[in-house]
Amino acid sequence: MPEGTDPRERLATLFTYINSSGKGCAILDNNVGSARYMYLKVCDINGTHCDTDSGTFSQYAGPVYVPSVACAPVTAKMGKTSSDLFINYKNEYVFPCN
What we know:
The chain is an all-beta fold. The chain is built from no helices and seven strands.
C-alpha cells in the first residue's frame, strides 16, 4: 500500500485470509521498519459486526476478524499519527462477493 506502489517502496501490506474456523481475517503489515500509527477495521456486509485494531505498532495491526467473509468492507490507515496519515485506504470488500 498504497495501491500500485513498487513493492520495494511499499509502506504496508494488507493480508487477508480465511482461518480454520471459517472466519475472515485481516492483518496490516508495517513495512516501514519503525513504529507507526496503524488502524485496521473489517466489518460484515451489513455493518452489524466490526472488528478493529489500532495503535502504534512496529510490526502489524490485527488480526481482525469478521464472521461472514462475503463482501466484507475494510479500512486500513497508517501514518505518523492518527491525524498525519500517509495511507488512508477503504474498500467496499476485502473478500470476494459470492
